[in-house]
Amino acid sequence: MSSPVISGALDQTHALLKGVPADAWDAPTPCSDWSARQLADHLVNLPAQFATMAKGEQVDWSAPTPHHDDAAGTFRRHADDLLAALEAHEGSVPEGMMAGEFAIHGWDLASALGHDRSGFDPEVAETGYAFMSQALADEQRGQAFAPAKPAPDGADAYERLAAFAGREVPFSRNR
Known about the structure:
Layout lengths: L3 H15 L17 H19 L16 H18 L6 H19 L8 H14 L21 H8 L11
Helix pairs in contact: 1-3, 1-4, 2-3, 2-4, 4-5, 4-6, 5-6
C-alpha cells in the first residue's frame, strides 16, 4: 500500500512544477548554488532516485542531475514510477526521507518563485522533519545542508523544516 503522505508530496510538487513561469527559471533560490531551473531538475530526478532505492539498487547521489525541458511532465512520470516501486517494495525507502526532500525543495522552489504555499500539506513537512531531526546529525550536513538556523516565531511546518535544513526563513527573493 502506498503512503498518502508521499502521494500528497508528489502531487503538490507536480502542481508546483506546473506553475513555474517560463521567465522564472533563472531565479535565485534558498539553495544558494542553484537557480530555479537547477532546483527543479533536482526535484524532477528525486522520484527516479527513490524508485531505484525501492528496487534495492544503488543510487549515485553524486551523479550530475539531468536537465528536463518538460519538468512537470517528467516529474509526473517519475512520480508514477516511484509509487509503483513503493507498492511493489513496501518499506524499502524511509517515508520521512522522501517527505523531507520533497518538503524542503518544494519550500525552496515556492519561496524562490513567490508562490503561495497555503495548499501545501503540513503532514509532508512534519513527516520529513521527524525523520531528518533524528537522522541528520551536525557532522553529516556536509554540502547538502547548512547548519540549522532558528525558525522565526509563528513559523509553519515547512519553515521549521527549512530552517532546520539551514535555510534563511523567510527567504528574500531580492538577494
